[in-house]
Specification:
Blueprint: E1 3-7, E2 10-13, E3 18-25, E4 32-39, E5 46-51, E6 58-60, E7 68-73, E8 78-83, E9 92-102, E10 114-115, E11 121-126
Parallel strand pairs: 2-11
Antiparallel strand pairs: 1-3, 3-8, 4-5, 4-9, 5-6, 7-8, 9-10, 9-11
Length: about 130
């Protein structure tokens, strides 16, 4: 089992930037793809970005392409989400999660493939 702790959320004006971090412990971090997901009030949780175990592949939701960047530092057991040009519709609780399958080829954005969810970090973008 892996424990995940998100940080870096907050309140920002539209057009601003934030960087989320997710620190992992308890399992060999470098073997697993990592993902960022978000859930806005009254909406289902959705995939935002996923990075493969070796950082060679990434998935981005259409709504964040060109604005968000996912990265990982396996030496620090940490995955990041750099969010630029933020919009009010990006307001949500952001969660990181680890893929259930080690060394998966490529990436999957399907939530059912992810477990070990963090507690979430609130991101609020004001207009």
């Amino acid at each position: 089992q892996v424990q995940l702790v998100e940080s870096g959320g907050g309140l920002v004006q539209a057009g601003g930037s934030l960087r989320l971090s997710c620190a992992a412990s308890g399992r060999t971090f470098s073997r697993y793809a990592m993902g960022w997901f978000r859930q806005a009030p009254g909406k289902e949780r959705e995939s935002v970005a996923v990075i493969s175990w070796n950082g060679g592949s990434a998935y981005y939701a259409d709504s964040v392409k060109g604005r968000f960047t996912i990265s990982r530092d396996n030496a620090k057991n940490t995955v990041y989400l750099q969010m630029n040009s933020l919009k009010p519709e990006d307001t949500a609780v952001y969660y990181c999660a680890a893929d259930r399958e080690a060394w998966r080829a490529g990436v999957t954005a399907s939530l059912r493939h992810f477990g070990s969810w963090g507690q979430g970090s609130q991101v609020t973008v004001s207009s």
